[in-house]
Every structure is written in structure tokens, then in C-alpha cells.
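FAQ: What does a ligand-bound record look like?

Like this one, built around glutamine:
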Amino acid sequence: MNIGILAVQGAFTEHKKILEKLGVASFEIRQKSDLDRQTDGIIIPGGESTVMGKLTEELGMKEILLGYIKSGIPIFGTCAGMILLADKIEGEEKAHLASMDITVVRNAYGRQLGSFETVSEFAGRPVKMVFIRAPYVSRTGENVKILSTVDGKIAAVRQGNMLATAFHPELTDDASVHEYFIGMIRDFSNNK
Ligand code: GLN
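The answer part, i.e. the structure of the complex:
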């Protein structure tokens, strides 16, 4: 298994480290040609969604990423990555990859303008979560499953092979969200 991590901006190294701990190979997607490599899954990290969205478009990666999503390859967005995947960003005209049937509100939790850590449920089990100027999901389409709610706000969702968390599981020593994503990749490969 090999997972491509979008590495144009943001916290991509931390994802690489957590995958290493799990014994899963990964590579950085820094330029368009990196997307020629065979990949079993893609991670879009946290960072600044406006910058990341602009760069993926300018570097000619947007269409290729959309092609991957269409083909069903599992994709996982954390924080800014969730914003990139969303169909709609509240108060903004334009979405980025516009692939998940969700609306997100950016920089949404009042008390997390700095950051905060908490333990809350993800897909039915408690996991450590770090929030940094995180978005939350204000609307979900009918095919979207809610995996976490924190402070009454939706913080993790799944739609088909797309997974998105408002928090940063890669900034904790708890690998369970990455394990969940690896499970999605295994299911996808087994059903091919
Ligand atoms: N506030 C950032 C944005 O709106 C997301 C923050 C993060 O990824 N940690 O793009």
C-alpha cells in the first residue's frame, strides 16, 4: 500500500510520520508529475485552504485529483483538507474540489482560535482530537455519514470513499483515524 499526501502547503509531514508508525508507505505530492505515481489513497492535510486550493489549481493538480476521486480512490481531508473537499464554503463564492455533499464554516469554533485538544467519539470509539482554527460541517447531504460531533458541531464525515475530519488526528499519538482510513483503502482494493 502506498498513500500520496498532498504536500504543497500545510502539515503533511505529520501524516507521513503517523503512516510510518503504522508501517504504511507514503509519498509527497508536490507537483503534477507526482500524481503519475500509482497510489492507493490520498491525504489532503491541514494548513490554509485558500492557499492550498489556489496552489493545486495553479500546479495543474485539481483535475487529476478530481479524476482520482471520481474513480473511487479513497481520499482523506483533515481540517483545511476538509474545506477543500466541501461542495460549499459558507460565505464564499467558490469551493475548491467541491466533491463532498457538505457545507463547511471556516474558523468556526469560538474557543479554538488558538487550539484545543479533546477526546471525543469517532465512528463509535473515543479518539484524541486536536482542533486548530478548524471548520465544522453545517450541512450534510443524504449520502453523508456523520462520524463525530464535538460541542454539538459535526467534526467528521464520510461519503463513499471520501473521509473528512475538522480536527488533526496526525498531531496526536492516536492512530485510530488513520487506521480507519487504511481500512477504507483495503476495502476498496478488495472490491476492485
Ligand atoms: N483555518 C484554516 C482554513 O480555513 C484551516 C486550519 C487548519 O487546517 N488547521 O483554511
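Follow-up question: can I read anything off the structure? Yes, for example: The longest strand covers residues 115-122.
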